[in-house]
Amino acid sequence: MSARVRAPELRGRAWLNTGGRQLTLADLRGKIAIADFWTFCCINCLHVLDELRPIEEKYADVLVVIGVHSPKFEHEKDPDALAAAVERYGVHHPVLDDPELDMWQQYAARAWPTLAVIDPEGYVVATMAGEGHAEGLVRLIDDLIATHEAKGTLHRGDGPYVPPAEPQTTLRFPGKAVALPDGGLLVSDSARHRLVELAADGETVLRAIGTGSRGRADGAADVATFSEPQGLCLLPAHVAEVAGYHLVVADTVNHLLRGVRLDTGEVVTVAGTGRQWRSTVDDHAHDSLSIDLSSPWDLAWYDDKVIVAMAGIHQLWWFDPIKRTTGMYAGTTVEALRDGPLAQAWLAQPSGLAVSADGARLWVADSETSAIRYVEDGVMGTAVGQGLFDFGHVDGSAAQALLQHPLGVCALPDGSVLIADTYNGAVRRYDPASDQVSTVAAGLGEPSDLVLTADGAVLVVESTAHRVTRLAPGALSAAGAATVDGPRHRTERKPTELAAGEVVLDVVFTPAPGQKLDETYGPSTRLVVSASPPELLVEGAGTGTELSRRLVVDGAVPGGVLQVTAQAATCDADVAHAACHLTRQDWGVPVRVAADGVARLPLVLRGLDAG
Q1: How far apart are CA 430 and CA 441, in angstroms?
Q2: Is residue 157 a contact partner of residue 143, using CB atoms and an 8 Å limit?
Q3: Does residue 385 surpass a pLDDT of 90?
C-alpha cells in the first residue's frame, strides 16, 4: 500500500466568505474537505458548483468545500472580479484566491476543474478532474464518515462559511436582454433567477417574470422559477402564433429552454429534461422535451429555427418551436478553435449569438477562445481570435487583434458587429469590409450583451455594474472609435516536457465505487486527440475507442498544446434498474519538446485513491 499523502497547506492572497478569517488545514481537522480548483470563466467549473450544492446541503455538519480560485484569464486575477463572481454564481462556501496558481501546482492540478478530497486527518484521499463526480463523491463521503466516526476522528458541527451582505440593486448580474416590440426591454436578471421588463428608458421596472428564487417551476409570472437565466429570443409572429408563446429563454443552470407568453407572463418548459447532457454526439432530431441539454447560454432566430449556444458542451444546437424538436447544429464537443463544415468545427464555450441584418450570417461570441466566429452557408469561420490561450486588448487588423472572453455580439445594419468584450470591460467593433477591430467604449462593468433598439441606439448590459446603459452618441462613428494597442496575454502553465518521437498517452479511468464500464450501446470509452500547432503530432491525432494512444511527436516543433478529450460510459453494478453515467473531460496540455522529456503522458479521467 502506498504512503498516505498529506494535504499541502492552503495559502493564497485572500479568503472570501469567511468573514475575514484566514483558514488553515488545522481549522478543517475533523471535517471532510473538498478543495475545488476552479476559475469563473469555465463552464465545467460552474457545472461542478451546481453538482456540489446538494452535497454541501446533505453533509453540512461534516463536509467543508473550499473553492480554490485558479484563474485562466488576466481579468480573473482581479480580486474585485473574483468577489463579484462568487456572488454571481451563488458560491456558498469559503473561497481561497490563488492568483498565481501556487495551490494549483501544490495539488498537481492539470485541468479546470479539479477536486481534491481531504479526510478528517488531513490526508488527500482522492483527486478528480472534470465534472460528473457527484455520485462518486457521495459514496466516498459516506465511506469516510463511517471510517472516521469509528476512529473518533470525525467532528460534526458548523463549518467556516460566513455569508456576505446582500446588496440592494434593481438588477443583480443581468446577463442578456432583448428589445420588445413596444419599445421596452426584457432583461435576464440572472443572479436573481428571473426576467425583468424595463421601460424604454432602460431603468423603470414594469414587471418581473419569476419569483426571484432558484427553481424550475412552470406557471404564471408570480409562480414560475428559473435558475440563472441568460439568453432571450423573440420568435417571429407567425411562429409564436403556432407555438403558443412569444419568447424563448435559455434557462442556463436548469439546462432547459423555457417559453414565455409576453401578454400574460406565463412560463412553460419547451426543451430539455432538466438533466445535463452526458451522451454521445449524433445528428438526429429529438423530441425537445426528451433530450438533455447543457448550459444553454444564448439564443438567436436563424435559418428558420432557434439556434442555441450550448456553452456546456462547446456546440451550437437548433430548436424548432413548431415541430417541437431539437438537435445538434455545429461542433463536435471538442473544446478548441477549428473552422470548417459545421459538423467538424470546434468551438469553446459559445456564449453570444447575433444575426446579420440580411439574415445570411450568424455571429458567435466564442468566449474561451476569445474569438468572434460566424456561420454562413453551412461553414464555421473565425473573424477575430487565435486560440484557447491567447487573449488581450489589441485593436487593428483582425489577424492580430485580441479580445478577452467576450460574451455578447450585436450585428449592425452596415454589416459590422459589436462585441461585448467582457473581461476587457469594453465594447469593440469588427468591420468585415476593412477587416479591422476598434474599441468604441471602455471602462464598463463586464459587459455581457448588446441590444440594438428600433431607433438605432445601442444598449449595453453591464453585468457587474448591475445595470443597462446606452452607448454615447457618436461612439459608433469613425471619430468615436479608438485604436488600443494594449497588453497581449497568453495563459502560461508549466509545460510537460515530452520526448521527440514515440510517446504513449494514457488516460487513467477508474469507475466510481459501485459502477462498472457499460458497453450496452457500443464501446464504453472514447478518446479524441489533436494538437496546436497540428504539426506537433506526426501520428496519433484523431478519434478512437481506446484510452491509450501511441503518439509520435515531431522533434522539429519546439512545443505547443495537446488537446485531449476523453469520456467513459458506466452503469451501476449488480443492481436492478441500473443508472447509466457518462464521465467526460477536456484537457489542454501545454508541452515542450525536450531531449530529456518523458515518453509517457498520464492523465486521470476519474480520481484514484491516493492512500
Answers
A1: 13
A2: no
A3: yes
Distance in angstroms (rounded) separating the CA atoms of residues 177 and 485: 30
Q: How far is CA 507 from CA 251, 314, 550, 600, in A?
A: 34, 21, 12, 11
Rounded to 5 degrees, what are φ and ψ at 190?
-60, -50
Residue 187, φ and ψ in degrees, nearest 5 = -120, 135
- The whole-number pLDDT of residue 579 equals 67
Residue 603's nearest CA partner among 573, 563, 571 is: 563
Phi, psi of 509 (to 5 degrees): -130, 125
pLDDT tens-place string over residues 186-228 = 999 999 999 999 998 888 999 999 999 999 999 999 999 999 9
Looking at the DSSP assignment, which residues form a beta bridge with residue 497? 592
The 3 state secondary structure assigned to 101-163 is CHHHHHCCCCCCCEEEEECCCCEEEEEEECECCHHHHHHHHHHHHHHHHHHCCCCCCCCCCCC
Q: Which residues contact 608 (CB under 8 A, 6 or more apart)?
A: 126, 127, 508, 510
Q: Is 61 left (phi over 0), alpha (psi -120 to 50) or beta?
A: alpha
Backbone angles phi, psi at 84, to 5 degrees: -65, -40
Closest CA to 114 of 123, 132, 98, 127: 127
Residues 6+ positions from 76 with CB-CB distance below 8 Å: 39, 40, 41, 69, 82, 85, 423
Residues 6+ apart with CB under 8 A from 144: 32, 117, 119, 120, 125, 154
Per-residue exposure over 37-74, b if at least 16 CB sit within 10 Å of its own CB, e if not: bbbbbbbbbbbbbbbbbebbeebeebbbbbbbbbbbbb
C-alpha cell at 490: 497568453
Q: Cα-Cα-Cα-Cα dihedral of 477, 479, 481, 483, to 10°?
A: 150
pTM recorded for the entire structure: 0.85
| pLDDT given at position 611 | 32
CA dihedral 476, 477, 483, 484 (to 10 degrees): -30
Quickly state the pLDDT bin for 478 (edges 50, 70, 90). low
Cα–Cα distances in Å, from 77 out to 80, 107, 173, 401, 423? 9, 19, 19, 22, 11
